[in-house]
Amino acid sequence: MGAEPTAVDAALRALRHRDLSTRELEERLRAKGFDEAERNDAVATLERTGLLDDVRFAESRARSLAARGAGDRAVRHALALAGVPGDVVEQALEALEPEHERATAIVSRRGTGPKTARYLRAKGFSEDVVAGVVAASSGDELG
What we know:
The radius of gyration is 20 Å and the shape is elongated. The protein has 3 domains: 52 residues, Arc Repressor Mutant, subunit A; 44 residues, Winged helix-like DNA-binding domain superfamily/Winged helix DNA-binding domain (Arc Repressor Mutant, subunit A), CATH 1.10.10.10; 40 residues. α1 packs across α3, α4 runs antiparallel to α5 and α4 packs across α6. By secondary structure, the protein is mainly α. The chain is built from 9 helices and no strands.
């Protein structure tokens, strides 16, 4: 029989298919039974080699969510759930096309009206952005 897999081996397998946040990786290693010292060593090794990077993870995840029509609130929530620090979340949001422009593109595809406004709200766009782009596209104020 071979040696037991190390925390680094388990972490590399977890990262094989997609980036993970540091917290997500730590949770996976914890679930596999690695103690805190092993988890910390694995995380430090992978951060040092550049294989684990919360900034890269956050920017990639934010771009992916925005490309699927998510507003800033939804992106912020998803990154917070992944354990990304607040300053890194804000940095990832700043790298995106402005929320207003993303919402305007959706309105141009879907049209104006209450159904589109509900859709934008459900996708995590702010009330101000929703009101602004739907009203501007329809030529009147939402009340």
